[in-house]
Amino acid sequence: MDWHSIFDQARTDVVFLFPEAMLVFFGLATLLTDFLLTKPQKSWNALTAMLGVLLSGASLWLLVRPATEHQTAFSNSIVIDPFFIFFGSILLAATALAILLSVRYLEVEDEQSGEYYGLVLLAAAGMMFLACGNDLVVLFVALQTVAISFYVLTGYLTRERRANEAALKFMLQGAFSSAILAYGFSILYGIAGSTNLELIQRAVQQRHADFPGADLLTFLALGTITAGLLFKIAAVPFHHWAPDADQGALAPAAAFISVGSRVAGFALLLRLFLTVFWPVNLDWAAVLAVAAVLSLTLGTFAAITQTNLKRLLAYSSIAQAGYILLGLVAGVNRDGTLHERGLQATAFYIFTYAFFSAGAFGVIILLRQKGVIGDEIDDLNGLIHRHPVAAVFMLIFVLSLAGVPPTAGFVAKLLIFWSLLETGHPYLALMGALYILPAVYYYFRIVAAMWTTDGSDAAQLPLVIGVTQKFALTAAATITLAAGIFPEQFLRFAKYSILGSFGL
């Protein structure tokens, strides 16, 4: 192609970048307009950030119709398909919740600045590219954009020693995982001579046919990339960063990092495993089964001993990642064919997890008052008397995390266990079900605390909830209950995301 043709094609393709472009534009805008605002006006930065998320969402939904046609752009380096629409919607919802929950919290911390919201929007743009990327270079650059934003958000409170330590640990471990992932990507490039995922899939398929069960290069790429991706979703044995990062970061940032890293990480994992590594699906299903069991075991039993709410939710999220990994295992039949219900359950779990996990962090955010951090279990004491609505919200989110009806978490776990039985994994289904019992114990420690009247100094203070926080928690609780009581529409959306995108 000559240069004129390339530029003409780029002008046509630029419309497909509008969702990410809106996030980048408004992220940079918050940095610039922040200098024009006086200190009492700093909360307007949240309004600018929310406007960027809303315009990004509108741009995304304008692409819904072309998504049924599996559009590609920029020389097939990005793809607009139902998978991107689905995960892009989740990521934008998580970003919106993080912004709404941050406004009053940052006022209490006296940190209401444009840098925070700019980092959130730039991280969201990187996560969107992880969902639509169809090229190894695009995916790796997007991954580093997200990682760097998360490192800075973790250590955003520079005056807090705990935040600085958590950010440093996160950055060092993240750099190591990125190096492993880059090594795996380089092997894939060597196999196919291209960075395009579709061409790599064909090369892997051909090597699998030529060397059945003995292609060391493919297995080396699979092992290194799996290790890198398990770090991104904080699955065992690459989970060490999550508890420290969640405890050290600002509570709204911790909510965004916890939810965003897992949703974006699973989006990338699904994109790679359902395209590039689908010819060796029985191999990666076995690896993910081991990682799932380890994540369930460590996440569940480590959470039992925690007294800090953010660390408890961090270990809980490791266990939740284990359940999602079980869904991926259930997406493959014993003969290597696709099991529709398993992947549908996986997508449904990821969708609902974003809301009930962010909601649980949201209630912790409410406990932050002047002079009181409010992130210990004892700080929930008497919440039912201080603010009954907040206590009910927390009860809904905790029930969903534990997998108790009539919440979305119950339906998600039930579908995964059902899929595991259908694909011949009864022991995994039984193990997953048994781990609910200790989980109920540590989740109901939170519930018991809310009905206790005496406790810490924070438990004696009246609870003040901002308008944006009320809206965010109401939205999260509504989705959590609606997906549990009327799951049909949500399951249809989940099915559309997977089966409408991959020709399996």
Describe the structure.
This protein is mainly α and 504 residues long. The chain has a domain of 225 residues. Helix content is 74%, strand content 1%. It has a two-stranded antiparallel ribbon. The mean pLDDT is 87.
Record keyword descriptors for this entry.
504 residues; 74% helix; mainly alpha; single chain
Number of beta-strand segments: 2
Weakly predicted, low-confidence segments: none
SSE succession:
HHHHEEHHHHHHHHHHHHHHHHHH
Gap between N and C termini, in Å? 32 Å
Assembly category: single chain
Main sheet strand line-up: 1-2
Radius of gyration: 22 Å
Q: What does the average pLDDT come to?
A: 87
Shape, per Cα inertia axes:
globular
- Residue share in β-strands: under 5%
Largest β-sheet summary: 2 strands, antiparallel
Class from secondary-structure proportions: mainly alpha
Helix content: over 70%
SSE map:
Elements: H1 3-13, H2 18-33, H3 44-62, H4 64-67, E1 71-73, E2 78-80, H5 82-109, H6 114-132, H7 136-154, H8 161-192, H9 197-210, H10 216-232, H11 241-248, H12 251-273, H13 281-304, H14 309-329, H15 340-366, H16 383-386, H17 388-402, H18 408-422, H19 426-434, H20 436-450, H21 467-485, H22 488-499
Antiparallel strand pairs: 1-2
